[in-house]
Amino acid sequence: MNIVDLFPTPLVIEQLEIDQEDQLVLSEYAAISDNFNLNQNQNYVSKDTYLLEKTPKFKEKIEVILKDYVYNVLGENESLRVTQSWINFNPPGTSHHKHTHSNSIVSGVIYLQCDNKSGHFEVHRPAVQNRQVHGEVVNWQQYSYNYVFFTPKIGEMFLFPSTLPHSVDENKSTISRISLSFNTFYNGTFGSDIKLNQLTLR
Fold first, then answer.
1. CA neighbours closer than 13 Å in the CB half-sphere of residue 36
2. Which of 86, 91, 121, 200 is least surrounded, with the fewest CB atoms within 10 Å of its CB?
3. Farthest CA pair distance, the chain
4. pTM above 0.85, yes or no
């Protein structure tokens, strides 16, 4: 049987070096409980949703990787900029619901504090690819599973299309799971004047 993988979903995993100065800025912010709001899913989200503005060198490092993603994965010669960025704080016993990110092209999550019990990062099959009628699955492989999970490491970044459903399962560790998430959008002018699809963003 010759199987051809059509339209695969790209997920990039990159190990980042976070310098001590930037790590300190983010850690000090995460250590103050008043900096967070509890949302309906029992996980905490930072009140500041532009946190990477506090660490410009770290933000620049991420945007360099985004440039590679746009060229090597999307096949474009455009640039993406980080728009919003925020910290997720999950104490033991909490999880993060399945969701997507609107008004974004590529989203990312970077793990600042975690261990192998603090919750898997899960990506789910998009709803448009789900079959409404199917038999009992006995052969689990990439064409039959509905989600895949990864055990994140400190400093690991996941980049993925913002339309890809994702979640984090229950934190069964004794430590809180802390991650930094961000959204992106095109920067400057993209599209083509000749093709009548040019758009300039400022």
1. 20
2. 200
3. 58
4. yes
| DSSP-assigned states of every residue in 80-98 | EEEEEEEEEEE-TT--EEE
**The dihedral formed by the CA atoms of 186, 191, 193 and 198, expressed in degrees to the nearest 10:** -50
CB 58 within 8 A of CB 52: yes
Domains parsed from the chain with CATH numbers: 12-127+140-189 (2.60.120.620)
Helix (H, G, I), strand (E, B) or coil at 72: helix
Instruction: Render pLDDT for 64-79 as a digit per residue (tens, 0 to 9).
Output: 999 999 999 999 888 8
With contact defined as beta carbons under 8 Å apart, do 153 and 111 qualify? yes
Alpha carbon 146 to its chain centroid, in Å, reads: 18
CA-CA-CA-CA torsion sign (46, 50, 56, 58): positive
Nearest-angstrom CA–CA distance, 3 and 177: 39
